[in-house]
């Protein structure tokens, strides 16, 4: 069973690596990866009271995949942001890799994402607001970018209380 303790923490060099695409022949592995991601996210929710998504590299799975638990589970494989709005908004972001820290970032108000689902079927999803922010956060993880690296300025950090 995966827990908070299995999530890579700020400073782990793997969090700064660019992930490799999931290959079609790896599709049988996705089910177990998703189970691990779901378990770790549920533990974060119990301990810290937040968590809508988690990226595979946060568990040391260096693949271009993330898992969202919104109105239903979303398994996002090899995503590509194909359009992002010029309109931006500021947001206090948090992350399971440093669960007590908030970072103020700017994110695109809306975007369109193309990805493969758990059945290797191509999907397109246009989102805005909170879901757009969430997708940008998880997508960044796949490129080794943490929200700390997107801070608006040196005063854009605060502790969770």
What distinguishing features does this structure have?
2 helices, five-stranded antiparallel β-sheet, alpha+beta, 161 residues, Peptide Deformylase, three-stranded antiparallel β-sheet
The top level CATH class name: Alpha Beta
The rounded Rg comes to 15 Å
Number of helix segments?
A: 2
User: Structural class, judged by helices and strands?
Assistant: alpha+beta
| Cα shape | globular
Strand content: 25-35%
**Count the strands?**
8
Element-level helix/strand string: HEEEEEEEHE
Overall number of structural domains = 1
Report on this model:
- With 161 residues, this protein is an alpha+beta fold.
- It has one domain (4-159): Peptide Deformylase (Alpha-Beta Complex), CATH 3.90.45.
- Helix content is 22%, strand content 35%.
- The chain contains two helices and eight strands, in the order H-E-E-E-E-E-E-E-H-E.
- The radius of gyration is 15 Å and the shape is globular.
- The model has no long low-confidence stretch (mean pLDDT 97).
How does the SSE layout of this entry go?
Elements: H1 27-48, E1 53-55, E2 65-69, E3 73-84, E4 88-95, E5 98-108, E6 110-116, E7 122-128, H2 129-142, E8 157-159
Antiparallel strand pairs: 1-2, 2-3, 3-6, 4-5, 5-8, 6-7
């Amino acid at each position: 069973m995966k827990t908070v303790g299995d999530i890579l923490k700020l400073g782990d060099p793997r969090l700064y690596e660019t992930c490799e695409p999931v290959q079609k022949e790896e599709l049988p592995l996705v089910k177990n990866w998703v189970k691990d991601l779901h378990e770790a996210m549920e533990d974060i929710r119990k301990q810290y009271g937040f968590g809508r998504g988690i990226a595979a590299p946060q568990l040391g799975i260096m693949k271009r995949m993330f898992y969202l638990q919104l109105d239903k589970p979303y398994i996002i494989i090899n995503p590509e942001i194909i359009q992002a709005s010029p309109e931006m908004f500021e947001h206090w972001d948090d992350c399971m890799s440093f669960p007590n820290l908030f970072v103020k970032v700017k994110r695109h108000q809306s975007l369109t994402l193309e990805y493969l689902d758990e059945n290797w079927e191509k999907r397109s999803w246009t989102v805005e607001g909170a879901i757009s922010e969430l997708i940008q956060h998880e997508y960044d993880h796949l490129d080794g970018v943490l929200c700390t690296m997107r801070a608006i300025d040196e005063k854009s950090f605060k502790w969770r209380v």
